[in-house]
Every structure is written in C-alpha cells, then in structure tokens.
Amino acid sequence: MPKPVSTFGGRPRGVLWDVGNVIVRWDPRNLYAKIFEEPAACDRFLSHVCTMAWHGLTDRGVPAEQNTADLIARFPEHEAEIRAWWDRWDEMFGGVIEETEQAMEALAARGVPQFGLTNMAGPVWPTIAPMAPAVRHLKAVVVSGDEGLIKPEPAIYALASERAGLRPDQLLFVDDGAVNIAAAAELGFHVLHFTDPSALAPTLKAHGLL
User: Fold this and answer.
1) DSSP state of 152
2) Which of 12, 69, 102, 154 is the most interior residue, by most CB within 10 Å?
C-alpha cells in the first residue's frame, strides 16, 4: 500500500485534483497518429513543432488563435497540422480514468471536499464536464489560463489553497507531473504522484479520506 506523503504532519481534509491524465486521459498522439501515417513523422512533429512548451503558452493564458498564428509563421509548411491542434482538440482525449471517477464519487458520498488545479486554457475547462461527470463535485477549480499562473509556480498553489479555504497541509494534491508534485510537497501539501490509477484508492484510504 502506498505510504501517505507530506512535508507536514496531520491528515488531509480535502483533495485537490489535477485534470489531464488524472481525471481524463489526454494525449496529442490520439489525434496526430491519425494525421501522420508514419509514427516517426508524428514524433518529429510533436517534438519540434507542436511541442508542450508551445502548448504551455495557452495554458498560461495566451489566446489559442494568437499562439497558433505565431507557430504557423514559423512553420508555414505545417499550417494544416498546426490548425488541427485546436480544430480537432476533442480527438486528443481518451475518456475518463475510471479509478479516479470512482474515487471522486466515493469521496463525495463521504462529504470530503474536492477541488481542482489544472494547467489548461480557459476555454477548454467547460468542455471537460461532459466527458467526466464527477467534476461536478469540485467546489472550486483554478484554471491556469484564466489566472495567468501555471504549475509549478508557487503562486498558483497558494491561489488553489485560498480558493479551497484549506491550508496546504489540509489538502492531498494528486497530479501526474513529477515537477508539479515536488513543488506542492515543498509548500506543505500532502501529495500523490499519479502514475498508477490502481494506487489511488489505497492512498486515499491510507490518508483516512476513504
């Protein structure tokens, strides 16, 4: 069973969830494997053109239209493929992560408060609820693109704690990014690096949340 991890003592009272690849599966390859016949060409495109660093600008609040235009100016030969990033955005998703959906429903049944902290473009957030009904249990959600802040910056964790009305040591933060987890742990959050969905329920139980 995974051991509870925290910089501070005591048990958490609420859960702070990341969204992408914690609540819903997201991978640009779900889309671009349809566009590029050769896997190597897909890999080159995602590592040199539509990179995570480029996408991260929209997560920080740069409008998608501007970010797309800027990239097309650099790679005009890939205009169609670049435009597909937002024109066919929904094809990047691979459904809910069932273990997380079940855990969120179980936590809600127990009255455990749940919140969200996601690196995401503001307009994307409203599209998540139809895919993952359990997000209705999130009492407050901090979306990076709406705030001009982004994980792992300390300010966005402070904002999430403030919106939740709980101290960091009263929250269990669940995220798939190791850098994000390390930053949260330094700030005093209980943390779970989400790499194995089957470890979620045991960890929540170990923390006394389930």
Assistant:
1) T
2) 12
Please give, one letter per residue, the 3-state secondary structure of 174-203. EECCHHHHHHHHHCCCEEEECCCHHHHHHH
What span, in angstroms and rounded, lies between the C-alpha atoms of 140 and 74?
38
Interatomic CA distance for residues 172 and 191, integer angstroms: 5
Burial per residue of 128-167, b for 16 or more beta-carbon CB atoms within 10 angstroms, e otherwise? beeebebbebbebbbbbbebebbbbeeebbebbbebbebe
Confidence (pLDDT) at 10: 77
DSSP secondary structure letter of residue 78: G
| pLDDT, block means (10 residues), the chain with 210 residues | 46 97 97 97 98 97 97 98 97 97 98 98 94 96 97 98 97 98 98 97 97
Indicate the DSSP class of residue 69.
H
Q: How far is CA 10 from the centre of its chain?
A: 26
Angstrom distances, CA of residue 114 to CA of 137, 160, 184, 199: 6, 11, 17, 18
